[in-house]
Amino acid sequence: MLGLLKIVGLGVLVASALVATSLAHAEDVKLMDGVTPRPNDTRMTAAGAFKKDPPWVIGMSDFGVNANTWTVQVAHEAENAAAKDKRISKFILLDAGFDQKKQVADIEDLIAQHVDAIIVQPVTSTSANASIAKAVAAGIPVILHTGRIDSDAYTTEIQGGAEHFGKVMGDWLVKTVGDNGKIWVLRGLAGHPEDTNRYNGLLESLKGTHVQIIAEEHGDWQYDKAKKLCETLYLNNPQVDGIWSSGADMTRACVDVFKQFGTPIPPISGEGNNGYFGQWITDGFKSISPEYSPAQGAAGVRAAVDLLEGKQLYKRYVYNPDGWDRDKAAKYYRDDLTANVWWPSELPEDKLKEYYGKK
């Protein structure tokens, strides 16, 4: 009997050690600064579930590489991370161009090419669900980021907290304009989950206040479209106490409009963009910068590599950093680089100068 107890006890110890080892794998994974497992969600991939010997081919389905300057840099960050890992023999980047059907076809194409992992930035919350499920069923891990889907068929996701992002700006704006303030709302790309969830964060900030949204428009996170919108809004009603802007390219556009009309710039939210940082530092208007690093592209590549190495990952990771003030923005601002670079970045100095150096 004593011998049996020893065997059972040894079995418990071995099982405990295996559990501890698997947890250590998950806890020791470093995807990106500020990225942590989602609280209260302990689901993990099975140890070794996607382990494959290199070389590896990794595919990426982007919702729209040229959506704006931020998405361009996400692609650069992903490509750079893949190029640094010599075990990745090929990195295939496909651009859906905001087309749901194109994204489905792109993922199907990557499956047909027998890639070893697929990174997906979804066009909408439903557009890629069936294709993602098909990839996972074929033994291909799918890493999701920059937009949630209403399915959990993916392998793991790394999500900047869109509601958190919107609420960081909303809380600051409510505090700045006061309980009866009148605000404009500049949203991103209509239908994109990131736009919807950032806006939901703003609505949380407005609960229990008397702040009024006197204008609400979609600027698609683009400078040119937002500049036309802000010009129209200003000409229709320039009496605005503050502006909630879902992205820094739109912020830059609105700041330029107020400067164009020679009137004070109202409090306006921004984002970690070099051009906006330059405006903020020079013009001194009231602002806050939520952090939303384009290095999420690199984090997606690292997640794919971790899975192919046989490591365990949590099902869901979150990225909810604090907002930046002007002093922190000044530490990142680079006068020698164009307005199109976003912070924080993992691109090395030579790539920053190649892509964003002023000519």
Automatic annotation (TrEMBL):
Its Gene Ontology cellular component terms are: cell envelope
Quote one Gene Ontology molecular function term.
carbohydrate binding
Q: Report the subcellular localization.
A: Cell envelope
Q: Which residues form the signal peptide?
A: 1-26
**Where in this chain does the record put each Periplasmic binding protein domain?**
66-312
Which SUPFAM superfamilies does the UniProt record give?
Periplasmic binding protein-like I
Ordered alphabetically, the record's keywords are: Signal
Query: Do the record's keywords include Signal?
Result: yes
Question: Which InterPro entries has this protein been placed in?
Answer: Peripla_BP_I, SBP_2_dom
Q: Which family does it belong to?
A: Belongs to the bacterial solute-binding protein 2 family.
Q: What is this protein called?
A: ABC transporter substrate-binding protein
User: Which organism is this entry from?
Assistant: Mesorhizobium waimense
